[in-house]
Amino acid sequence: MATDNNNKVLNVPNLRFPEFTEEWRKYKVSDVLDFYSTNSLSWEQLDYNNEDLYNLHYGLIHVGLPILVDIEQNKLPGIKTECKPKNFELCKEGDVAFADASEDTNDVAKAIEFVNLNNHKTICGLHTIHGRDNKHLTVLGYKGYAFASPLFHNQIRRIAQGTKIYSISSKNFAECYIGIPSKDEQSKIARLLALIDSRIATQNKIIEKLESLIKGLCSFLFDKNKYDSFVRLGDISEITNGNSDVQDASLSYSKGMYPFFDRSNDVKFLPEYILDKESIIYPGEGSEFYPRYYNGKFALHQRCYAIYDISRNFKPKYLYYFCKTQNSYFVRNAVGSTVASLRLDTFKRLNIPHVPIEVQETYVQLLDKIETKIIDNKAILKKYEEQKKYLLSNLFI
After folding, report:
1. pLDDT below 70 — which residues of the chain?
2. How many CB atoms lie within 10 A of CB 87?
3. Which of 57, 145, 205, 269 is 20 to 30 A from 179, alpha carbon to alpha carbon?
4. Which fold has domain 25-180?
5. pLDDT at position 285, please?
6. What percent of the chain lies above the pLDDT cut of 70?
């Protein structure tokens, strides 16, 4: 909240459009929303080919749907004819739906708002809480973002119940508050955040197209049917696993620390390194096996592998791009019933197409240009996401 010249705390956010000066009003969420019953249909009872009655499953709130849901752009599954419930409340535009359970307290009460149903019959399903502003205190789109703000979720974290799975009920909304300004200010806030969300969606599509392009080019360039000469990876490189554990790693960098690679996509840091080499790094367990390239000092998880000291007849980046096409090989040769794991011999036996170094250089130059574009566009995406996070933290009370 902000203060005036006399240090009086005002019911206004830290950041707002300059034309608005009046204070906001705070309401209990239960005074803003009326709640309706939902069904408990599982995924097995839903069907994307049935459009008679759409059903919102809580899993789609956690993964897949944006904050503002347009039914024409954000596909929902239908309900199988034999599973259609007898009694239900149809959603209206402006209705919100919360996920009532999650393994992460940050995702309990994660919400979406329906902004365009286009006359499609839609109901809320398993592990959702269906709310409606029957008092018309809010404009279309405002609630979705207000319920996505850290200020709201900080309240939810304090009241969410459970040990492994955290949950809430509609009764908990009597303990939570939401700030509501004039409808004109609501509209400007919702419009700004919707524009940023639209730009984030566009940026994700750009990245998806570039990743699809590099995947297609790699598949074409490294099609093994085009080659008649191969060498084994173990004959042209050194391969080792790491010696560090994730519990010793830090999520933030400080001076004297080195990148630490494990099977996650996040880079962590350790105060010591295992190799100072141009390397191809692989997760040693998981459901998918894709490489990453690094040149310099780094630490490595004990269940990850590094491929290094590569023969002069092979460019490391050539091997890296080839390995990006070999996920199916590693999945097929992984062992273990609970967690699929890779063994050293699996790497050693991998057949590498042997082509002249000049051809390798051509491949690398082409693929490097696309990968650089992917990296640059991911950096742009991160900036937009940071901007949205900042606005959600400062535009609400």
Report:
1. 1-9
2. 6
3. 57
4. Adenine-n6-DNA-methyltransferase TaqI; Chain A, domain 2 (3.90.220)
5. 93
6. 98
Asked if 91 contacts 69 with a C-beta cutoff of 8 angstroms, the reply is no
CB 284 within 8 A of CB 342: yes
Q: Do domains 25-180 and 228-354 have the same CATH topology?
A: yes
In the three-class reduction of DSSP (H, G, I as helix; E, B as strand; rest coil), residue 280 is classed as strand
Instruction: Identify the CATH number of the domain defined by range 228-354.
Output: 3.90.220.20
pLDDT of residue 162: 81
pTM of the model: 0.86
**What's residue 8's pLDDT?**
57
Collapsing DSSP to helix, strand or coil, 64 comes out as coil
Residue in the block written with tokens 């039914």 = 71
How big is the CA angle at 293 (ends 287 and 299), to the nearest 5 degrees? Answer: 85
Residue ranges per domain, the chain?
25-180, 228-354
Q: How many CB atoms lie within 10 A of CB 383?
A: 11
Cα 301 to chain center, whole Å? 23
Q: What is the token pair recorded at 46?
A: 């839903």
What pLDDT digit, counting tens, does each position of 76-87 carry? 999 999 999 999
Contact call for residues 344 and 305 (beta carbons, < 8 A): yes
| pLDDT at 2 (0 to 100) | 60
Task: Give CA torsion, residues 249, 254, 255, 261, to 10 deg.
Answer: 40
Strands 128-132 and 275-283: unpaired
User: Residue 362 belongs to what H/E stretch?
Assistant: helix 357-394
- Which tokens in the block code for residue 372? 């650089």
Phi, psi of 299 (to 5 degrees): -105, 160
Query: Parallel, antiparallel, or unpaired for β 122-124 and 166-167?
Result: unpaired
